[in-house]
Amino acid sequence: MIQASTDRKWLPLYEALASDVRLQILDLLAQQEMNVKELAQTLGLSSAIVTMHVKKLEAGGLIHTALVRKQGGTHKMCSLAVSRVEIQLPQLSEPKRVFDEVSIPIGHYTRFEVQPTCGLATADHTIGQYDDPRYFFEPERMHAKILWFGSGFVEYRIPNYLLPSQTLEEIEISLELGSEAPGIAENWPSDIHFYVNDTLLGYWTSPGDSGQGRGHYTPSWWPDSINQYGWLKVIRITEQGTFLDGQRLSAVTIKDIRMSRNEWLLRIEVPEHAAHVGGLTLYGEGFGNYNRDIIFRTYRR
């Protein structure tokens, strides 16, 4: 079998097929081997013309020839080289989607309400004291690469670059997060709620606060006995609904999001009334397993 494509190297094959006479020769050789003279007699053509066609078929890899002693002479016997040809055409490429992307450092929240256990840290040191919400006001929080709390929320303001002439198609939010246990606990569920512009998108139940080994990017000074890494979750708000890692999270669509001309509000919350109040840990660049901050994308047309 020949598996061809649109690469120029296959031009001899396509040229070999582009002839009614050569197609007839393939049909004849599918029945039996024949020499050039036999082919010429069957087709009613001269041996010189048939020889030219045979050479093109041979160059295309469709037949092969061999000199054979037969009936007291030497004959150029022709036979099929392949039984099938497949042509792989170029795949229709998806049009490139246009989007704006903002990377939001963990400490760049603009509003919060948190309850212990709680805290923040940069890539080098802890900010303030553990379990004291006052340090969430500390100006150094802007450099935080990890934060955690037992219940409450953090909210981020993100610039909206959409122009009046453009239409919003989709919002994509990706972030690494998990529960917050005192220390670590593999089984420590937490219902983490997601809001955009005060619209509840839904919630994901984090299974626990991971501590089975250190996070790939967690700094060496960070204790082994507390938060190490989370799960990378991707939320997409589309015209069909809201999806978490490809699974439907809710019926909230792009049209359900109240638009603001200048900004987006992203709130991540573990409410006290949730069925599982296991807290929240957010991992940014320099912590956890993914070495990235919160990524907020808006796709437009």
What does this structure look like?
The protein is built from four helices and 20 strands. It folds into two domains: 2-87, Arc Repressor Mutant, subunit A, CATH 1.10.10.10; 98-300, Jelly Rolls, CATH 2.60.120. With 301 residues, it is mainly beta. Strands 6, 8, 9, 10, 12, 15, 16, 17, 19 and 20 form a ten-stranded antiparallel β-sheet that branches. A five-stranded antiparallel β-sheet has the order 7-11-18-13-14, with no helix packed on it. It has a three-stranded antiparallel β-sheet with strand order 2-4-3. The radius of gyration is 34 Å and the shape is elongated. A hairpin with a 2-residue loop joins strand 3 (63-70) and strand 4 (73-80).
Query: Any idea of the CATH topology of the largest domain?
Result: Jelly Rolls
**Can you say what the CATH homologous superfamily of the largest domain is?**
Galactose-binding domain-like
CATH architect. name of the largest domain: Sandwich
Ranges with pLDDT <50 over ≥5 residues?
none
Radius of gyration: 34 Å
Taken as a percent bin, the fraction of beta residues is 35-45%
Shape estimate: elongated
Helix content bin = 10-25%
Pfam families: HTH_5
Protein name: ArsR family transcriptional regulator
Keywords: DNA-binding, Transcription, Transcription regulation
InterPro entries: ArsR-like_HTH, HTH_ArsR_DNA-bd_dom, HTH_MetalResp_TranReg, UCP030050_HTH, WH-like_DNA-bd_sf, WH_DNA-bd_sf
